[in-house]
Design a protein that fits this description.
By secondary structure, the protein is of the alpha/beta class. Strands 3-4-6 form a 3-stranded parallel beta sheet. A two-stranded antiparallel sheet has the order 1-2. It has one domain: Ribosomal Protein L13p, Chain: A (Alpha-Beta Complex).
């Protein structure tokens, strides 16, 4: 991730060797397939890479999962949606790509300049957009966030949560 460079600094009679770090990830683009990835773990990895300067595109956001019993997860999301008023907030997204982007925003210092710039480098998509059709084979996955590693199979996809909340989108 970092390339170390040594720099000699003369300070009086002493010579101090300082390490300087040069970022390698600046300006690169990463495509992540969110199918069967745990949304929170995916969000932490994406937030860190965005802060380091990488552009990130996440495809198939509706297939990312949230762990827990189905009825509990849906009840928590419904309670969050029903809190407040539609005109005054809080505003909770219903679309799966916006849900994931909001999770990522929660892991960034988005009120600071560097967090805002990192947030602009993240794009979330439902399905695979036309401009990325030829790059689907290059899409990577994150091993630490894979739901197949769970000892149990209790999870709900963001697409199921979106349908439950009344989002107007259709697969296929």
């Amino acid at each position: 991730m970092y390339e170390s460079l040594l720099k000699k600094v003369e300070k009086g009679k002493q010579t101090i060797i300082q390490k300087q770090h040069k970022r390698k990830t600046k300006g690169t683009t990463m495509i992540i397939n969110a199918t069967n990835l745990i949304a929170g773990r995916l969000a932490t990895v994406v937030a860190k890479k965005a802060l380091l300067g990488e552009e990130i595109m996440i495809i198939n956001c509706e297939n990312a999962v949230i762990t827990g019993r189905r009825d509990t997860v849906l009840a928590q999301r419904k309670q969050r949606r029903d809190r407040g008023t539609p005109t005054a907030g809080p505003y909770c997204p219903r679309m799966p790509d916006q849900m994931l982007k909001r999770m990522i925003r929660g892991m960034l210092p988005y009120k600071q300049e560097r967090g805002e710039a990192a947030f602009k480098r993240i794009m979330c998509y439902r399905g695979v957009p036309i401009q990325l059709q030829d790059k689907v084979q290059q899409a990577t996955t994150i091993k630490e966030a894979d739901a197949a590693k769970l000892p149990y199979k209790k999870f709900v996809t963001l697409g199921e949560i979106a349908k439950f909340l009344g989002a107007n989108w259709y697969e296929g």
